[in-house]
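subagent[fold] <- orchestrator: predict structure for attached chain, return tokens only, no commentary.
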Amino acid sequence: MLPLDSRQRSLVWELTKRDVLGRYRGASFGVLWSLISPFLMLMVYTLAFGFILKSRWPGTSGSTQDFALILFAGLSVHGFFAECLTRAPQLILSNVNYVKRVVFPLQMLSWSMMFSAAFHLFMNLLVLLLLKWVWHAEIHWTIVFLPLVMLPMLGLAVAVSWLVSALAVYFRDVGQFVGVLAAAMLFLSSAIVPVESVPESYRWVFYLNPLTLIIDQVREVVIWGRTPDWSALLMYGAGVLLFAAGSYQVFNRLRRGFADVL
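subagent[fold] -> orchestrator:
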């Protein structure tokens, strides 16, 4: 991942702020919806899965509260990545005026989009921690590892955005495909399905999903109070760096023709 200089950091900050505030412009509660929405989501998940479907997570106490927290942790991680993935195809297409400016660093659009999604992820995790304290009267000290657990996923979101946004300029069908892919990544990850409950012959599909490891490690440090699997995260991070380097090279090669296509 490329380091950002002071001018680029300032640009990313302004783009991110505009994106976050623009989403709530005109709403009576404004940015407070970033906290209200997770609460409403959690209520829906608890009602649907906990009370109606009577779902329980293996290895837990079997309470509805435990299941709701476990489910919400997984869906929050997926929601972050799905937002980045589904917005990426329009990132360049909806900013044609920036393409025409030779000096504008188009790669910064992916950074600002990622930070905007990360803001909402942070709010979701804040709600998760608050309810963990309310329902269980405890917050595990292992939450200090949460930023390190999420860091590889943040990098992956930027790398995927570079690749998808560049390809979408030339192949508009990419926008249709990523919506299906985002849904598939939800159901083929540990977000709503415990991998242990999946037949062994199909588990490799879940483990290949880049969301599964991060979801599991978020639950480890937030819900169960255990330290993360550092070796797995290290290998994951190394893979993200390699993928990011390749995606950035593809982005730079394809951007030369953006102005002609658009």
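orchestrator: received. Logging for downstream: The two ends are 27 Å apart (CA to CA). The mean pLDDT is 86.
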